[in-house]
Amino acid sequence: xxxxxxxxxxxxxxxxxxxxxxxxxxxxxxxxxxxxxxxxxxxxxxxxxxxxxxxxxxxxxxxxxxxxxxxxxxxxxxxxxxxxxxxxxxxxxxxxxxxxxxxxxxxxxxxxxxxxxxxxxxxxxxxxxxxxxxxxxxxxxxxxxxxxxxxxxxxxxxxxxxxxxxxxxxxxxxxxxxxxxxxxxxxxxxxxxxxxxxxxxxxxxxxxxxxxxxxxxxxxx
Length: 221
Hints:
By secondary structure, the chain is mainly α. The protein contains eight helices and no strands. 81% of the residues lie in helices and 0% in strands.
């Protein structure tokens, strides 16, 4: 009985860390699914060459079912929770950042560099993604012409040209690292899956750039 009591303080932190890792993975999967779905839905602007009819119809559906009004804040909360779960393993102090950079350069290990990139993009996405969500959700309804006007004016085009690759890099690396960490991707499959992840990331960035081009040039605001 005493041995069990002595062991329990050691077991509890390990179990807590396991649950936190699980919650981090689950919130990550939700966000990956959302981001890919969001990219595809925004890309609907390309289906009628910038006319906006398809995108507007989709937006009206989400607004009529309150998926935009409720889903947006829910996704924002999930994004914040995911960052909190992940931040406990991030090097937040200057000394820690210097150490992880030094070790990354010395080891020159692919998965370590992927983690560094994912950690760096996380901070950018948290700030810029929050700005994007606040701008969109406080200016409902979502319409193609309104989105085009935003991109055609001011600094928003530059904003999205930064945010787009940050998100797709973070999401693509995240999927790969989830697969490795939870055993879905075996050691022998890592190179092939990393190559697939790179191709998928480039495809999603390409779709995003095409959509930005359509908003910028073809859609009449």
